[in-house]
Amino acid sequence: MSHAAPERSAPPPGRVITGAGRHGARRREVRGRRGHGEQDHAAQSRVGQLPYLAVMVGVGIALLIISQGVHLVRSGTLVFAGVLLIAAMARLVLPERRAGLLSSRRRLLDVAILGTLGIGLLVAGLVVPVPS
Fold this sequence. Notes:
Mean pLDDT: 78
Helix content: 55-70%
Radius of gyration: 24 Å
Number of helices: 5
Largest sheet: 2 strands, antiparallel
Low-confidence stretches: none
Number of strands: 2
Distance between the termini: 85 Å
Oligomer: single chain
Shape: elongated
Strand order of the largest sheet: 1-2
């Protein structure tokens, strides 16, 4: 006895079958033009990247300070540590949709990684002597 796969019919026009998950394929309507909801979502998506952009600007400033000379290495390292600790706090308090690219893993893991790096740089900046 052979079992033949059931034939699947094509979706009606204007509908698309999306990923078949645990509960089977889901159908959704396809719109020809961009609706207001999608424009709002795009604007929220850009706003959601602001914490990441702020962290990247802070890291850039820290690296710029460090590159100015040996006498500013400690200051740049402390700025870098502060930026990472602020990033950890932002990841902790912001909801998933507002954290943007700061959220790459689970919340507590992201906070632990950013916090550990920030504390490590803070200790290094305070303890390691700066050559003169």
